[in-house]
Amino acid sequence: xxxxxxxxxxxxxxxxxxxxxxxxxxxxxxxxxxxxxxxxxxxxxxxxxxxxxxxxxxxxxxxxxxxxxxxxxxxxxxxxxxxxxxxxxxxxxxxxxxxxxxxxxxxxxxxxxxxxxxxxxxxxxxxxxxxxxxxxxxxxxxxxxxxxxxxxxxxxxxxxxxxxxxxxxxxxxxxxxxxxxxxxxxxxxxxxxxxxxxxxxxxxxxxxxxxxxxxxxxxxxxxxxxxxxxxxxxxxxxxxxxxxxxxxxxxxxxxxxxxxxxxxxxxxxxxxxxxxxxxxxxxxxxxxxxxxxxxxxxxxxxxxxxxxxxxxxxxxxxxxxxxxxxxxxxxxxxxxxxxxxxxxxxxxxxxxxxxxxxxxxxxxxxxxxxxxxxxxxxxxxxxxxxxxxxxxxxxxxxxxxxxxxxxxx
Length: 409
What we know:
Layout: H1 4-11, E1 17-19, H2 21-29, E2 35-40, H3 49-63, E3 67-72, H4 76-79, H5 94-102, H6 104-108, E4 117-121, H7 123-126, H8 131-138, H9 143-146, H10 150-157, H11 164-180, E5 184-188, H12 192-201, E6 211-215, E7 224-226, E8 229-231, H13 249-257, H14 264-271, H15 276-288, H16 293-308, H17 311-325, E9 335-338, E10 344-346, H18 347-353, H19 360-368, E11 372-374, E12 377-378, E13 385-387, E14 391-396, E15 402-408
Parallel strand pairs: 2-3, 2-5, 3-4, 5-6, 9-15
Antiparallel strand pairs: 1-6, 7-8, 10-13, 11-12, 11-14, 14-15
Helix pairs in contact: 1-2, 11-12, 13-16, 13-17, 18-19
């Protein structure tokens, strides 16, 4: 292993919270591989780029010789994480969780080293907890401490309901650390309270408290710069502002290229494998006008696509984008957002909601007449389904052509 100081320099880079640096230093000085846990609740199928910010930190631990535990929270997902919620999170069934968890393992290894990763499911022990054991766990924490949590405190002050099972979530997550005897637990910055509950619980079970590290939250693809600050919800499949790690390369490319020009630097900082000095030089070149923002976005997109797809597939995606660009689309194509209440929406309905057709029936007529093109190809059917999170270059008409980039959210 590298020296303790070298390890700390790498591991603390980009970290939001660290409890406690001195304790982490002591554990690293022991020379033994640390047990490092990060949990992922499979509330929806597939991982997205927001998850990979945390997974890259896990990868750093692996490359320094430590052992990481990729914990699939198949039991806690059925309870529902109340983090950041102003109301109760809808509970999932076991079947919904099992379906979502199915894809997690293979996708995790697109970032993590398989040989240094331990995959665990917390239903192994949480599903076996007796009533007496659960009561004993609850007895190790107080309601007053729970109400220190911002989202609980806000709901309590506003007389919004807080259900008893929501108090169980951080306790169960903390109990995971007890069972796994973790040295370090990683999580997003919004998970700090939950992670500290695990740190508090471990001494009460006779264990040394884990160190806690949090990483920044990646905003969604719809974020904007307001008064010099990046404003927007974190990347989430439920919001529809995500880029999935298992998405086809062209879809990934389209979403990344449509990120706001000012917000793209936030994505660069959290996702680019390039060193900070190189990113600063790139931004300076864009500001000076010697490099275009489009070229900078393409560089980031190429780095990201290259991590999750074969080189030939990446080149095909860029070639397809270039072909579409040569199809006569102007430089100032408007970007139109369509909100879908379900995972899919029909093309005709999307055109109507985007204002590209006066009605759904008019949109259907245009499609049937062959007057609508999607990403350079004629739309085959007015029933064609567009998925939430997709972005398409739409062309209507052949002589008097209208263009728009339609984003489904």
